[in-house]
Amino acid sequence: MVHHRDTEGTEGAQRVEWRSSLRAISVSSVSAVVKSRPPNTHAKDMKRSFIQSFIRGWLAVVAACALTPGVDGQTLQPSPLTQQTAARPPADPDKFAVILSGASGEEAYAKQFARWTADLRGALVERLGFAESNLKILSENPTDKTTTRATADEVRRAFESLRGAVTQESTLFVFFIGHGSFDGKQSKFNLVGPDLHAGEYRDLIGALPARRVVIVNMSSASGEFVKALAGRGRIIVTATRSGQEQNAPRFAEHFVKSLTEREADADQNGRVSVLEAFDYAARLVAEHYKRAGRLATEHALLEDSGDGVGHERG
Question: How far apart are CA 177 and CA 271, in angstroms?
Fold first, then answer.
């Protein structure tokens, strides 16, 4: 069901421009997230040290520069940085991703969500070494056999279908693109028909054996997902810092773009970490509101220690 607010309107929604620049997305530099925050207790230091060593080196996959499929299945025209196109990188059988593109509520959002979903899928498969068979994509209006309708039942089936494939050595990414809601008690992601709340996603993800999980909820009111889904070996990114931030966020546009944007690679090592993608998107969101002379209605969070407390800056 769709519940969203938009104080800016969507007529001027910008079309995402994808530039071929980065070779990989990596969470190996997540240690920088841990080191950047002062420790509260010795026990917490030990906990973070364990997590840091446990997840160091995740997902350092070489991916060549390639064009990203458009919403209509046609290849987008290359920007100046995509002239040198290389072959698709080898697929890593231990990487899995679920992309949930929820109910839009209106045509402008439907087009926006479809484009972000297509661009995200393209980045994962064409550049970041994800096998097509290891992707589960659900959307409001499926356009081919690789995508299913984003209903609660289909979401459950998607996660259940991964049980036989995902192992303890697997890395699982879960992306949410759409609208969210919060009624003061439960935070939900808007699907076609009845919605699922954060606790239900916690159970679905927790039923899988993967010990390395990255959850990126780019919907409104997504901040409440941090407390519900945090845990050992997990990185949680949300577009908002609480369930009270219910305006349609701009975070998704910039986070998806960061996967193929040279500027997002802060240390210029040829890979974009989750931390770098988060910082890039959060910075561009803040700059947007500053240029507009408006108070920001969204503040992204990143949580990587398992304590359920997100931080606005890495």
Answer: 23
